[in-house]
Specification:
ligase; 12 helices; 2 domains; Phenylalanine--tRNA ligase alpha subunit; elongated; protein biosynthesis; alpha+beta; BirA Bifunctional Protein, domain 2; Phe-tRNA_ligase_II_N; transferase activity; two-stranded antiparallel ribbon
Length: 343
């Protein structure tokens, strides 16, 4: 038995000294000290040893185990030290090299345009008001003079929260609903803009999206006239597109204003002479506006005999596309950093 143990230890030591990888040491440990290893098999054969010799044999096996474990640990320490030295060498940092600059984000083109619009109107004494994106049909349509059978409601076919065709809860199609909430509060006069997301069932293309942003404006006070509307929007156009910008108002129809108009601005690229940007017309359509319809005032509890007002609405993406000469609205939503970091 003593000779057998010596042969096992000599073989194990030979393999340990010859090993050149850490994984090889694990294989040797399993082969000699594992549950089915050489030393374990010796212990299992103790039943064949005479009872008076078993203590001596057991001691010899334990001494052999301790010797092998000690050698394995020493060899493992040598390997680990060598690996550590190689790691330190490969991970050496040259502290004299310039540091890698962190990639810092910035505001989205829509946000930049919105903040500029807000700055302009806050400078004219307006308040920025927000409201719910999920809205009652009443505030989105009826209170804006668009009853259930009105053609304008078909034009703004939208997303209903309920599958019921007669659901009265919708995703707002315009931020004009915020104006109704403010008028119902009865705190007059009102000078406000209402920016926010709106939703319509439009196909996605270069100029349309089912989710977009609007900025609606509202002024309610005594003796407000169309001249106030024109003057306000003329100042806005000059501030956003340049001091030489001119405005033109064309008659139009909106259910919640009377009279109503579409406003064009002179092309800020060619000064109105005609170019590719304005499609040779010299003018660019920018927003819709008008005097608040008396019936809209009445429905919100405001006396149209005492108060008048004007309202306007402009697409935020429209401003961003024009201001930064972007020819496809989808670029604003694709989150391509090559595009966004230009702003």
């Amino acid at each position: 038995m003593k000779e057998k143990l010596k042969a096992i230890v000599d073989e194990a030591l030979s393999q340990i000294n010859a090993s050149d990888q850490l994984e090889k040491l694990n294989e040797i440990k399993v082969a000699f000290l594992g549950k089915k290893g050489e030393l374990t098999s010796v212990l299992k054969s103790m039943k064949d040893v005479a009872p008076e010799e078993r203590p001596m044999v057991g001691q010899m096996v334990n001494e052999a185990r301790e010797k092998l474990e000690s050698c394995l640990e020493e060899k493992k320490t040598v390997f680990m030290k060598k690996l550590r030295e190689e790691q330190i060498k490969s991970e050496t940092i040259d502290v004299t090299l310039p540091a890698t600059k962190p990639m810092v984000g910035h505001r989205h083109p829509n946000t930049i345009a919105l903040e500029e619009v807000e700055r302009i109107f806050i400078g004219m004494g307006y308040e920025v008001v927000e409201g719910p994106e999920v809205e009652f049909d009443y505030y989105n349509f009826e209170a804006l003079n668009i009853p259930a059978n009105h053609p304008a409601k078909d034009e703004q076919d939208t997303f209903y929260v309920s599958s019921d065709a007669h659901s009265n809860i919708v995703l707002r199609t315009q931020t004009s609903s915020i104006q109704v909430h403010e008028m119902e509060k009865g705190k007059l006069p009102i000078r406000m803009i209402a920016p926010g997301r709106a939703f319509r069932s439009d196909e996605v293309d270069a100029t349309h999206s089912p989710s977009f942003h609007q900025i609606e404006g509202l002024v309610i006070d005594k003796n407000i006239t169309f001249a106030d509307l024109k003057g306000t929007l003329a100042v806005f156009a000059k501030e956003i597109f340049g001091e030489d910008t001119k405005v033109k108002f064309r008659p139009h129809h909106f259910p919640f204003t009377e009279p109503s108009a579409e406003m064009d601005v002179s092309c800020f690229k060619c000064g109105g002479s005609g170019c590719r940007f304005c499609k040779g017309e010299g003018w660019i359509e920018i927003l819709g506006c008008g005097m608040v319809h008396p019936h809209v005032l009445e429905m919100s509890g405001i006396d149209p005999e005492e108060y008048t007002g004007f309202a306007f609405g402009v697409g935020l993406e429209r401003i961003a596309l024009l201001k930064y000469e972007i020819d496809d609205m989808r670029l604003l939503y694709e989150n391509d950093t090559r595009f966004l970091k230009q702003f």
